[in-house]
Design a protein that fits this description.
about 150 residues; mainly beta; Thiol Ester Dehydrase, Chain A; six-stranded antiparallel beta sheet
């Protein structure tokens, strides 16, 4: 899949100003890597710093794309076939080492740890790290619920 043409807004239910992922750098059934440029108008801008809530929301949006990807056909690069909703069901562990400054680009990497699917929804556990300039900002383990809207 050519990720240059992937519009992440088509695959995540979030919209500005709550969209915390700009670009999918790589993705498969078990891993994802995303980037996000923090601008001054970001709702998680806390006096020039992207705050802890923003880091966690960026992680959750990144993580949801691994399982969310499985709801779409491989050739549906426009994200037109399915609409999803997802939410954090548990934050199992989170460590925040630092918060990045506005004007930074963060990179978030996530790996699927476990997944349980029903006819109605998917529940997953995902481990995630976020960094900027090779400095780890966040590490976490999240449980997410992803559901297709009918």
């Amino acid at each position: 899949m050519n990720l240059d043409y992937l519009d992440i807004k088509k695959f995540l239910p979030h919209r500005a100003p709550f969209l915390m992922v700009d670009k999918v750098l790589s993705i498969d059934n078990e891993h994802v890597s995303t980037s996000f440029f923090i601008n001054e108008n970001c709702i998680f801008n806390d006096t020039g710093v992207f705050n802890e809530n923003g880091l966690i929301e960026n992680a959750a949006q990144t993580c949801s794309s691994i399982v969310g990807k499985s709801f779409f056909r491989e050739d549906d690069i426009l994200g037109e076939d399915v609409k999803l909703i997802g939410f954090i069901s548990a934050i199992k562990k989170v460590t925040i080492n630092a918060c990045p400054k506005v004007g930074s680009t963060i990179t978030t990497n996530a790996k699927l740890k476990s997944r349980f699917d029903t006819d109605e929804y998917s529940i997953c556990t995902i481990v995630c790290t976020t960094s900027t300039d090779h400095k780890e900002l966040l590490s976490c383990e999240l449980n997410l619920v992803i559901q297709e809207l009918k």
